TrEMBL record:
InterPro entries: CENP-V/GFA, Mss4-like_sf. Residues 13-125 form the CENP-V/GFA domain. Belongs to the Gfa family. It comes from Streptomyces nanshensis. The lineage of its organism: Bacteria, Bacillati, Actinomycetota, Actinomycetes, Kitasatosporales. PANTHER family: CENP-V_GFA DOMAIN-CONTAINING PROTEIN-RELATED, GFA DOMAIN-CONTAINING PROTEIN. Keywords: Lyase, Metal-binding, Zinc. PROSITE patterns: CENP_V_GFA. This is CENP-V/GFA domain-containing protein.
Amino acid sequence: MSETEAATGSDVRSGGCLCGKVRFTVTGPVDDPHICACKHCAKRSGSPFQWWVGFPMPGLEWTGAEPTWFDTHPGKTARGFCPDCGSHIAARDHGDDTVIGILATALDHHDTDPALVPTNLNRLPEAAPWLAQAG
Ligand SMILES: [Zn+2]
Ligand SMILES: [Zn+2]
């Protein structure tokens, strides 16, 4: 990221849940956009996989309500969702203040943001062998 980009705010992204209760902005470079088809992602989402992207934790701001956090790995990993509409929003590791995991689908412009295109399809064939495999 250049100084100019920082000054113009071009690396700021906004997002939120379906009902609008949870809102946030993230600032900074995209880290490791990927698909995950682990059992937790599939079970919680009701979908074969979830689309994750990391951002610097210091650039995260909750501009609406903060998600409700549920420990999927007690004491290790928590996942955040809207308590009203159930939208999946985020994940974080306890004790790690450097990265926040955001579900790309929670971002307002995920469908038109080339920086979010997944570069890893973690374990996708396990979850959905019928799905066309990219890459
Ligand atoms: Zn909501
Ligand atoms: Zn997963």
